[in-house]
Design brief:
heterodimer; A: alpha+beta; Rossmann fold; OB fold (Dihydrolipoamide Acetyltransferase, E2P); six-stranded mixed β-sheet; 8 helices; 20 strands; about 25% helix; elongated; B: mainly alpha; MetI-like fold; two-stranded antiparallel sheet; 14 helices
């Protein structure tokens, strides 16, 4: 849904080194106007460095950053039409909520009445009414977060950069704040780039996610595609929970591919990328697997296996089971607790059978 | 819950300690000085009357009490010498403090911007001169500044002057000595506040359109005001009462109040007037302290 947009921001072959460490390694990326883009990755993957280069706090060693066609790679931070919401908010402790929000507007040299109007607009947008005269240390964590958001939005930047904006909030507050952030982004139609190490957060808020590892973008895709069609074994393991089994893929036969594995018998898949004939890795999400009482004719059906339930975990909405197949592989299975009695039928030590559809099997290069 | 229960007994005793200290080493001596200030000078031992003698009975105590007067304070106001001394002390203290702030702030700022591992080194460089006796350092300056001293030799050798200049016994020498001696007292509180400054605040200021200079004036400077206040007080108050530096480095034509006090006490043996001078000085110094206290409290209340 975003691919057709004209790129507002074009990052072209950007490299950034710190001493001998390459933090961002020849990275290219287009981000469209109005897009909510998430940079996701483990700590130290270079996502924050990339964000800081967009803000102007770091200069790339090579490559270009085009905003609306103009290279801004070496434009100083205070001269960029880009604003940033800092991880720990970096609110000015000596200024009030109003003073913080007005700071950027005053630097832009706007007339007084317009500054007042914009500040009021921002206060209403992030629901801080009545707190205008407070100082940051008189606010709660959630309120501070909203001041930081309002301050970074006040100048109406072409791109808003958000550096782990919810890292300091507790889980409940974080979920509410994610929804608010999406509403604000949609209402303003602004381009947001968020850096996060929390994949659920990235999935929730973003139109597209760029997963980074060791300074490179490993996959750029909408959340659903990233989850259902990971392009590598690393992505499959990084995003969500998954079962990975190694095997040998054979050529297509009557519309299906068969993969012979060492410890999980023969698995049938609907799709196999053309590059992945031969040694492959089979990936199946735990929630795509059906768990049932052992069926006598199990071996006869496609992708149906029997084994022993080795452990159970009740997580509330779902239960997570480990099943050791007769062939040796261990599968994690997630079952939604659709009824209160749903988890009653399974106990550790019993024999079970499990099955999954060929459509839900993802085959990856090894 | 009753407020009293917050502190345990030992904690409450510990809270009393500073008050006890104040009472014992400030209020009691202050009472003595005040009493002497209200007495009259006399050729006696001690050199003033009246002397309270509790053994002499109630009537003589009352007589002694009625003999106390404010004459010495009236003298301070009526004689130009004292007023000039007070004014000179304030002028010297204000001028020195301003110079200290103007030099100290950039130095402390520079120190706080140094790479982390160089900061303790810079700190040591500021503190190390303190390991030598203060008096010895001032005498060293006399050596440097005197007629055939190092400074004149250097200036002559460089051809900047063709005959030695007079440095010693001038106000310049005194200001040099004061600024040199009080430098660490200005630097340390300033450095303490500046080094705590969060770099992210400056990045936020830059992100919101402030140039480096603007970011300094709008963020760094206001946030360093508590350090400026502490540094100014730490320098200003002792400089007002400074005695040694003006005595050794400045000329003898104009005196600071500390010198006048010394003169009254040791040369004129007029303890009552010297005491009155000390009490008025203390009252004067309370003014900046109270202002600072008030600002601090307002700072705490808004936070």
């Amino acid at each position: 849904m975003t691919a057709s947009r004209t790129p507002l921001l074009r990052i072209a072959s950007v490299v950034k080194r710190f001493g001998g460490v390459t933090a961002v390694d020849d990275l290219s990326l287009d981000i469209g106007a109005g897009e909510f883009f998430a940079l996701l990755g483990p700590s130290g993957c270079g996502k924050t460095t990339l964000l800081r280069m967009l803000a102007g706090f770091e200069a790339p060693d090579a490559g270009a950053i085009h905003l609306n066609g103009a290279d801004i790679a070496h434009v100083r931070p205070h001269e960029r039409p880009v604003n940033m919401m800092f991880q720990n908010y970096a609110l000015f402790p000596h200024l009030t909520v109003e003073g913080n929000i007005a700071f950027g507007l005053k630097r832009a040299g706007l007339p007084k009445d317009e500054i007042a109007a914009r500040v009021a607009e921002m206060i209403a947008l992030v629901r801080l009414d009545g707190l205008q005269a407070r100082r940051p240390d008189q606010l709660s964590g959630g309120q501070r977060q909203r001041v930081a958001l309002a301050r970074s939005l006040a100048r109406r930047p072409q791109v808003l950069l958000l550096d782990e904006p919810m890292a300091a909030l507790d889980k409940k507050l974080r979920e509410g704040t994610q929804a608010e952030l999406m509403q604000v982004q949609r209402r303003l139609g602004m381009t947001f780039i968020i850096v996060t190490h929390d994949q659920e957060e990235a999935m929730t808020v973003a139109d597209r996610i760029g997963v980074m590892d060791k300074g490179k973008l490993v996959q750029v895709a909408p959340p659903r595609e990233l989850y259902e069609a990971p392009n590598s074994r690393w992505i499959a393991g990084f995003v969500g929970d998954i079962n990975l089994i190694e095997g040998q893929a054979a050529a297509r036969q009557s519309g299906h591919f068969t993969i012979v594995t060492q410890n999980a018998g023969t698995i049938v898949a609907s799709h196999v990328p053309s590059s992945a004939i031969g040694n492959v890795c089979v990936a199946i999400r735990p929630e795509k697997i059906r768990l049932s009482q052992p069926a006598p004719d199990a071996a006869a059906s496609v992708n149906t296996f029997t084994g022993i339930l080795t452990s159970t975990g009740f997580l509330g909405g779902v239960s997570v089971y480990s099943v050791k197949l007769d062939q040796g592989a261990v599968f994690r299975v997630a079952v939604a607790n659709a009824t209160r009695a749903a988890a009653d039928g399974f106990a550790a030590g019993q024999r079970v059978s499990l099955s999954f559809a060929p459509d839900d099997v993802v085959v990856l290069d090894r | 819950m009753s407020g009293r229960r917050i502190f345990t007994r030992p904690a409450r005793l510990a809270a009393i300690a500073p008050y006890l200290w104040m009472a014992l080493f400030f209020l009691v001596p202050f009472g003595f000085v005040l009493k002497i200030a209200l007495s009259q000078t006399a050729i006696a031992q001690p050199p003033y009357v009246p002397v309270f003698d509790l053994a002499a009975g109630w009537e003589s105590f009352k007589a002694a009490l009625s003999a106390l007067s404010f004459d010495n304070f009236k003298l301070l106001v009526s004689d130009d010498l004292y007023i000039f001394s007070y004014v000179r002390s304030l002028v010297v203290a204000i001028t020195s403090t301003v110079i200290l702030l103007l030099i100290g702030y950039p130095v402390a700022y520079g120190m706080s911007r140094l790479p982390q591992r160089w900061q303790p080194v810079a700190m040591m460089l500021v503190i190390v001169p303190f390991w030598t006796s203060f008096l010895i350092r001032i005498y060293a300056w006399i050596n440097v500044l005197q007629h055939d001293g190092l400074l004149n030799k250097l200036l002559l050798a460089l051809g900047i002057v063709d005959k030695p200049l007079v440095w010693l016994a001038t106000d310049s020498a005194m200001y040099l000595g004061i600024v040199y001696s009080y430098f660490p007292f200005m630097i340390l509180p300033l450095y303490a506040t500046l080094s705590k400054m969060d770099d992210a605040l400056l990045e936020a200021a830059a992100d919101l359109g402030a140039s480096r200079l603007k970011a300094f004036w709008l963020v760094t400077f206001p946030l360093s005001l508590p350090g400026i206040g502490a540094g100014v007080l730490l320098c200003f108050i002792p400089i007002v009462g400074e005695f040694v530096i003006p005595d050794l480095l400045a000329g003898s034509d104009r005196m600071m109040i500390g010198q006048t006090l010394w003169l009254e006490f040791f040369t004129n043996k007029d303890w009552p007037v010297a005491s009155a001078i000390a009490i008025v000085l203390l009252a004067l110094l309370l003014v900046p302290l109270l202002i600072y206290e008030k600002l601090q409290r307002r700072h705490l209340e808004t936070h």
